[in-house]
């Protein structure tokens, strides 16, 4: 039975109904940071934690977006703006479906992250700054891309010859610590719980 404070709008199933049924507060947990900062790893581990806590989630990252929805886009500024615009619109649909959407994109420009924020209601956009210094990202270099960017094989690489505008006041700031990805994810999970975004 629906909670008594939820009003039924004439045969219209809306976000409130869907999220009440799922028993959660829908949101976009937006991870931003340099390549190699840990966005994908943390987002994956976080989604597992949320799934285990009975949350309904969907993870958007390069694997399911840059091969499909945004498969026509490259990495110059214009393409990145369009990439984040499309991801923002899709995230909004997931929120409307009552889900907790997790996104793991560099999203280097403040205006584009704020565009996503502007599409959502207050409290639905949770910006998480995965603040790993470039020296650490470059040392990790999980895909060998920093090496290619340094040698000039790849152009417009974020942090090398393309800008990254760090968030000034993210909802959650994951300051770098020399720790495992599980430990960093735990810090994020606790911060999300403390701020009331998740159970
Ligand atoms: N030039 C350049 N700059 C940055 N990144 C590059 C580039 N070329 C390819 N890649 C790979 O693409 C991933 C970044 O894609 P995103 O969609 O997250 O980028 S953006 O938000 O549109 O800036 C990024 O993935 P992550 O390392 O997971 O961040 C890279 O693997
Ligand atoms: N505390 C940590 N948090 C996240 N990733 C970490 C951490 N420590 C080491 N790593 C490693 O760093 C790399 C981060 O890569 P990835 O998650 O693809 O980053 P991004 O998605 O930001 O490009 C992975 O190989 C991961 O195992």
TrEMBL record:
PANTHER family: ADENYLYL-SULFATE KINASE 1, CHLOROPLASTIC (PTHR11055:SF63), BIFUNCTIONAL 3'-PHOSPHOADENOSINE 5'-PHOSPHOSULFATE SYNTHASE (PTHR11055). Belongs to the APS kinase family. It catalyses: adenosine 5'-phosphosulfate + ATP = 3'-phosphoadenylyl sulfate + ADP + H(+). ATP binds at residues 33-40. It comes from Glaciecola punicea ACAM 611. HAMAP family: Adenylyl_sulf_kinase (MF_00065). It is an enzyme of class 2 (transferase). The active site is at 107 (phosphoserine intermediate). Pathway: Sulfur metabolism; hydrogen sulfide biosynthesis; sulfite from sulfate: step 2/3. One of its GO terms (molecular function) is adenylylsulfate kinase activity. Keywords: ATP-binding, Kinase, Nucleotide-binding, Phosphoprotein, Transferase. SUPFAM superfamilies: P-loop containing nucleoside triphosphate hydrolases (SSF52540). CDD domains: APSK. The gene is cysC. Pfam families: APS_kinase. Catalyzes the synthesis of activated sulfate. It comes from the Bacteria. Residues 26-174 form the APS kinase domain. One of its GO terms (biological process) is sulfate assimilation. Its EC number is 2.7.1.25. The lineage of its organism: Bacteria, Pseudomonadati, Pseudomonadota, Gammaproteobacteria, Alteromonadales. This is Adenylyl-sulfate kinase.
């Amino acid at each position: 039975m629906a909670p008594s404070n939820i009003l039924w709008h004439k045969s219209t199933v809306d976000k409130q109904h869907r999220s009440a049924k799922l028993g959660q507060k829908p949101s976009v947990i937006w991870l931003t940071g340099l390549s190699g900062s840990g966005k994908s790893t943390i987002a994956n581990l976080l989604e597992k934690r949320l799934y285990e806590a009975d949350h309904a989630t969907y993870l958007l990252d390069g694997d399911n977006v840059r091969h499909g929805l945004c498969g026509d886009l490259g990495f110059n500024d214009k393409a990145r703006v369009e990439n984040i615009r499309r991801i923002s619109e899709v995230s909004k649909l997931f929120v409307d479906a009552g889900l907790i959407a997790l996104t793991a994109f560099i999203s280097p420009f403040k205006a584009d992250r704020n565009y996503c924020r502007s599409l959502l209601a207050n409290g639905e956009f949770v910006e998480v700054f995965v603040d790993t210094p470039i020296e650490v990202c470059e040392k990790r270099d999980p895909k060998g891309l920093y090496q290619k960017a340094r040698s000039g094989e790849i152009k417009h690489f974020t942090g090398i010859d393309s800008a990254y505008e760090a968030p000034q006041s993210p909802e959650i700031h994951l300051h770098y610590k020399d720790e495992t990805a599980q430990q960093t994810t735990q810090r994020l999970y606790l911060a999300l719980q403390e701020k009331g975004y998740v159970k």
